[in-house]
Write a structure and sequence with these properties.
The protein is an alpha/beta fold. Helices cover 45% and strands 16% of the residues. The chain has helices at 4-14, 23-57, 73-94, 96-99, 104-124, 128-144, 148-174, 282-295, 311-326, 340-356, 376-387, 405-408, 425-437, 445-452, 473-478, and strands spanning 187-190, 199-203, 208-214, 220-224, 227-230, 240-246, 250-257, 260-267, 331-335, 359-361, 370-372, 396-398, 414-418, 461-467, 490-494. The strands form three sheets. The protein has a seven-stranded mixed sheet. It has a four-stranded antiparallel sheet with strand order 1-2-3-6, with helices on one face. A four-stranded antiparallel sheet has the order 5-4-7-8, with no helix packed on it. Keywords: Membrane, Signal, Transmembrane, Transmembrane helix.
């Protein structure tokens, strides 16, 4: 029979121990708490991380590791799913000290998520190191689940890799590479259509109507591969053109020719809508943007030349009126088009005429020179009327911004004031670089000024244009814009000394 001492000893042994936990136990508890906190934070942040990552990757990583191209919704879904699957594996690995030994169902689920995340990273991430690291660790994570410390280490590596991917994608979106669409900036691309690689210019690449510019050979363009419209000639402009409506943000422009179709990722950003005068002043604005792009600067930094009258051009118009008056001409006929630059130019010409005693007549006449202060489109119509005799006039004096081959090729006896010679080394270098980047394009005053980055400050002289075609017609048709000439098949020569 037990004594009282035995009962006391048994009660003492039955009491729970109140000894403090060991250092190893405390460290394990802290590690589990940190893992749980990090896992909860990753779960909460995963949707937020997916959005910028999908945005940053929408260009497809041209020239990089990623195999998915284009900016369509399917591509974005693949990338977001890959990111979330990898995040799920990281969470499961980080929470391992908290959840205990993994069940077969959990291991299977983590294995599936790891496979999806690994394949998605290899396909979607356009940097090899950032793609391989999370893919390898994600595939190893299911086997590491039975080992708490190894599992937490794998989860930490995955979390760090995800953070690096998102940070890298964000930086890429902020400072796109040469093959990525800069939001709201004119876009120049070469597209592969069978054996041809036509150059395509999209300007101004903003929400609303945009001009798509191609070379002399028409292509079909549109925002749906099933509804494409052919580019066509515009008055006074080189190449072919088409207006296309682009939505806000990222979208895809399709280009078709010869039964083949290619796509271009575009991004209009969140800036204001495009100008409504695309078919009149748009080609000249596009030529200025193209000159800036060829020079390696952003076309958005170049204002449209038709928006204001440059001081140097105003002085050249005054000097032209003074030259006309010096030839004992008592009246002129003035042509404008209502644009801000044209309206200002007309005012300058009228003031110069009043000062020189020259009348600005409302009607043209055989003894009256025609002064053209319109844009490319209006000038083209006026010059063609002069060439076929529908508009009578004693030659045509063009504004300086009308220096472009399609206008000078019309036989209307035109002259224009320039502060540089198209035969000088710098204009010839611009023409060569322009044609190397956009083979069918002809130089223009707007493009040269944007390419140069500043207006020419030399004295203005009058130049005349003439067509002197020494090549057979068949050869000229096959090579219409060869060389560095500003007027293919013709020449632009100085006709006067410095104007005063």
């Amino acid at each position: 029979m037990p004594t009282s001492a035995d009962v006391g000893r048994r009660a003492k042994r039955a009491r729970p121990s109140r000894r403090p936990p060991s250092a190893a136990a405390r460290a394990a508890a802290r590690g589990a708490a940190r893992a749980a906190a990090l896992g909860a934070l990753l779960i909460a942040a995963a949707p937020a991380l997916a959005a910028p990552a999908a945005t940053a990757w929408a260009d497809g990583g041209h020239g990089g590791h990623g195999a998915v191209s284009g900016g369509g919704w399917l591509t974005a879904v693949i990338r977001v799913v890959a990111l979330l699957a990898t995040a799920a594996v990281a969470v499961a690995a980080l929470l391992r000290p908290r959840t205990g030994p993994p069940s077969r169902r959990l291991t299977a689920a983590v294995s599936v998520a790891a496979a999806v995340g690994a394949v998605g990273c290899l396909v979607a991430v356009d940097r090899v190191v950032l793609a391989l690291a999370p893919a390898a660790v994600a595939l190893a994570a299911p086997r590491l689940l039975p080992h708490p410390r190894r599992s937490v280490a794998a989860g930490t590596v995955l979390a760090g890799a995800l953070a690096a991917i998102v940070a890298s994608g964000s930086l890429t979106a902020a400072a796109p590479g040469p093959d990525r669409a800069v939001p709201g900036v004119p876009l120049l691309r070469d597209v592969a259509l069978g054996g041809a690689r036509p150059s395509i210019l999209v300007t101004p690449q903003r929400q609303g109507w945009n001009l798509v510019h191609a070379g002399d050979a028409p292509v079909s363009v549109g925002t749906s591969p099933d509804r494409l419209s052919a580019t066509e000639r515009l008055p006074g402009a080189p190449g072919t053109w088409r207006t296309v409506w682009l939505p806000s943000g990222r979208s895809t422009l399709y280009v078709g020719a010869g039964g083949r179709t290619a796509s271009i990722a575009v991004d209009t950003g969140r800036r204001g809508s495009a100008s409504p005068r695309l078919r009149t002043d748009g080609p000249e604005c596009a030529s200025a943007a193209l000159g800036a792009l060829v020079a390696g600067t952003r076309g958005a930094d170049v204002p449209c030349p038709a928006d204001r009258l440059d001081a140097a051009d105003a002085d050249a118009l005054r000097a032209t009126v003074a030259f006309i008056a010096g030839r004992n001409v008592r009246s002129i006929h003035l042509v404008g088009d209502g644009s801000p630059r044209s309206a200002a130019a007309e005012a300058v010409v009228r003031q110069a005429c009043a000062k020189a005693g020259v009348t600005v007549a409302a009607k043209a006449a055989a003894d009256r020179p025609v002064v053209v202060a319109a844009g490319w489109s209006g000038a083209d119509a006026t010059l063609r009327d002069l060439a076929r005799g529908a508009l009578r006039g004693q030659g045509a004096y063009l504004a300086p911004w009308l220096l472009t081959a399609p206008l000078l090729a019309v036989p209307a006896g035109q002259m224009l004031p320039l502060r540089f010679s198209p035969r000088d080394p710098e204009p010839l270098r611009y023409a060569a670089e322009l044609r190397s980047r956009f083979p069918d394009e002809t130089p223009s005053a707007a493009g040269f000024r944007a390419w140069r980055g500043a207006a020419d400050t030399g004295p203005a002289r009058l130049y005349s244009a003439s067509l002197v075609n020494l090549m057979p017609p068949a050869v000229l048709a096959r090579h219409p814009h060869s060389g560095t000439s500003w007027l293919p098949g013709g020449t632009i020569t100085v006709a006067t000394g410095p104007l005063r």
